[in-house]
Write a structure and sequence with these properties.
The chain is mainly α and 142 residues long. The chain has 7 helices and no strands. The radius of gyration is 16 Å and the shape is globular.
Length: 142
């Protein structure tokens, strides 16, 4: 059951983040094109992705200054089975794409606030999608 809840949480993260990328893809493409001429340590695209990470965590009911990976690292550190499965998936993906091991625990900072609630995460995603749907209806009415 814990693997199922971890998979559901990963699904919520992916669907929320994919929606943000879908909404901001032109802006992110511009960031990437601009970054081709700048130094990577000041990447506009990286800053946008980190901002989206904070927004995703906020939509899921987390603190506005804590990243999703940090929350998963905290769950893994506290031996949450579902959180550990989710963190292991993110760690695997991060190692595959960015060659960084143990990303979730490495993302934790002493100033992070951990207050995860599955109910808040589900409610946040539902309200986010309801908000998008109401915007869509408003645009259609024009």
């Amino acid at each position: 059951m814990k693997k199922l809840s971890a998979a559901f949480f990963i699904f919520l993260i992916i669907i929320t983040w994919a929606t943000l990328i879908g909404l901001f893809w032109v802006y992110m493409l511009f960031n990437w094109l601009y970054d081709l001429k700048t130094t990577p340590e000041y990447s506009w695209l990286k800053g946008t992705a980190l901002s989206q990470d904070l927004v995703v965590n906020r939509i899921l009911g987390g603190d506005h200054k804590t990243y999703v990976s940090s929350v998963l690292g905290n769950m893994k550190t506290n031996k949450s089975r579902g959180g550990t499965y989710a963190a292991n998936f993110v760690d695997w993906w991060w190692k595959l794409v960015f060659k960084q091991a143990n990303h979730c625990i490495g993302a934790m900072k002493p100033t992070d606030i951990y207050d995860f609630s599955a109910r808040r995460a589900i409610a946040g995603v539902v309200m986010f999608w309801l908000n998008l749907y109401l915007i869509y209806l408003g645009v259609q009415a024009l």
